[in-house]
Amino acid sequence: MIYFIIAASIVAADQGVKLWAVRALGPGGSLGLIPNVFHLTYAENRGAAFSILEGKLGFFVAVTVAMVGLLLYMAARGYIRGVFGRLAAVFIIGGALGNLIDRLFRGYVVDLFDFRLIHFAIFNVADVFITIGGIMLAVYFIFLEGKTLKGNGDGNQKPESRS
Question: Catalytic residue numbers?
Fold first, then answer.
C-alpha cells in the first residue's frame, strides 16, 4: 500500500507542477530563477528525451504501458525485492504515469526545468523520478539483487536460498 501512495504522490506532484507551468508560464513563457543558469521554461515535448522520436504518440503510450506492466509483474513475481528495488520500480512507474497522463490528455509532455548553464534538455518532475528510479534499478540489479531478502509469504523476511 505504501508503494501505491508513493507512486500516486509522484504523479500528483508531477501533474501539479505541470498545471502550474501551464497556467503561470504558458507557451513560450520563462522565469529566470538564476539568470542564464536555471530557468522555469514552458516547453511542449512531443517526443522523448531531447525530443527524439517526435510525433510518435502511440509508440510512447505502448512503451509506457508495457514498461509499467513489466515492472509490476517483476515486483509481483519477486524479481524486484526489498525496499530499494521496489522504490526504484515505484519511482519509474510514478514518473512514467505522470508523463503518460500528459500524452493521453494533451498529446505532448509539459517540461519546465531548464538548466541553461550546461545547455541540457528541458525536463519535468516525472523525468527526475524516471531517471533516479532507472539509476536505482541498475544499481539494484548490478550490486544488490542477489543480496536482498525474499519474503516467505507470512510477512517475515529470510535470506534467499542459493541452491
Answer: 111, 127
Q: Residue 15 has which C-alpha cell?
A: 501533474
Pick the closest to residue 139 from 59, 80, 60 (CA basis).
80
Global pTM value: 0.84
Q: Which of 104, 120, 107, 99 is nearest to 39 (CA)?
A: 120
Candidates 133, 93, 129, 128; CA nearest to 4 is 93
Return contacts of 71-77, CB within 8 angstroms, 24+ apart. Answer: none
Helices (H), 21-149: 57-76, 82-105, 125-139
From first to last of the 163 residues of the chain, give the pLDDT tens digit.
Answer: 899 999 999 999 999 999 999 999 989 899 999 999 999 999 999 877 666 777 778 898 999 999 999 999 999 999 999 999 999 999 999 999 999 999 999 999 999 999 999 888 899 999 999 999 999 999 999 988 776 555 444 444 544 544 4
What is the Cα–Cα distance from 88 to 135, expressed in whole angstroms? 8
Whether 50 contacts 69, CB under 8 Å:
no
